[in-house]
Structures are given as structure tokens and as C-alpha cells.
Amino acid sequence: MVFVVVLDQVSKHAIERSIVPGEERSFLPGVELVDTHNHGVAFGFLPGDQLLVTILIGLAVVALLSYFSLHATQPLMWLPTGMLTGGALGNILDRVRHGSVTDFVKLPLGWPPFNLADASITLGVVVLVLIVDHARHAKS
């Protein structure tokens, strides 16, 4: 979790110091680096009242931590726990400090810009689904 938060915050700080909002820099083929600010949740979804969004994210983190505490003995459960909570905390830190979240990875085909916290949350959900599915099949 701490690793995700630190990596997320360091990467956002580096982007904010090196790219002017509105500027795009080629990073890899098809991948651009940008400096945009998101008022919604992951990938720009549900833009709205920052306080409400922050409260909803906080409640989701509490619910996830409750779930994880009940299933802590499952192998590798620590991995999605750290990925999801680290990603959520990284974005909450941005909201508290800046009133928005810094997004900087832009993919082709109109995909909304995102950051490492968003990527960690997305991968954390995938890992969680795989772990839960594996546990369910192991019991069968």
C-alpha cells in the first residue's frame, strides 16, 4: 500500500513539474504524457462534488478493508488490499491537497487520461476477482 501511494505521488509530482497543462509528450508508441486534472473518480467517471466523491471513496475503502479483514487468510489477499487502498489513498491525497486528481497517462482511441493510482485500483480489482474466483473453485 505504501509503495503504491509513494510511487503515485512521486509520479504526479514529476509530471506537474515537467509538463504544462494542455501539453502532450510522446512516451511510448501510442502513449502520451499529459497534465490534466480530474474531478471525478477513476478515469474521469462521475465528475461532481469533491466532498461527496471523497466521502464515497472513503466509504468504499472502509467496505473493502472490512471485506479483506474477513478474508485475510486467503492466499495473496494482501496484494489486492494494498493495490486498492494504496490507489484510493493516492487519489484522496490529491483531492485533499488540490481539489482534483492529477492524471497523466493518455492512451489512444479516446481513452480518458489516468494515473498510477487508477491503474493500481483497476489491477487490484482484477487480482481480487481472480483470488475470489480461485478460492470459490478450490472449495468446489
Overview of the molecule:
A hairpin with a 2-residue loop joins strand 1 (24-28) and strand 2 (31-38). This protein has one domain (2-139). It has a 3-stranded antiparallel β-sheet with strand order 1-2-3. With 140 residues, the chain is of the alpha+beta class. Helix 1 (2-18) packs parallel to helix 3 (78-98) and helix 2 packs antiparallel against helix 3. It has helices at residues 2-18, 50-70, 78-98, 116-139; strands at residues 24-28, 31-38, 101-106.
Write the topology of this structure.
Layout lengths: L1 H17 L5 E5 L2 E8 L11 H21 L7 H21 L2 E6 L9 H24 L1
Antiparallel strand pairs: 1-2, 2-3
User: Which sequence of SSEs, written as H and E, runs from N to C?
Assistant: HEEHHEH
> What does the largest sheet look like?
3 strands, antiparallel
Whole-number tally of structural domains: 1
Briefly note the structural class of the backbone. alpha+beta
Q: Terminal Cα separation, in Å? A: 32 Å
Q: Count of DSSP E strands?
A: 3
Major β-sheet strand ordering: 1-2-3
Helix content: 55-70%
SS field, number of helical segments: 4
Which stretches are poorly predicted, pLDDT < 50 over at least 5 residues?
none
Q: Which tags fit this structure?
A:
single chain; 140 residues; alpha+beta; three-stranded antiparallel β-sheet; 4 helices; 3 strands
In a few lines, what is going on in this structure?
With 140 residues, the chain is α+β, with helices and mostly antiparallel strands.
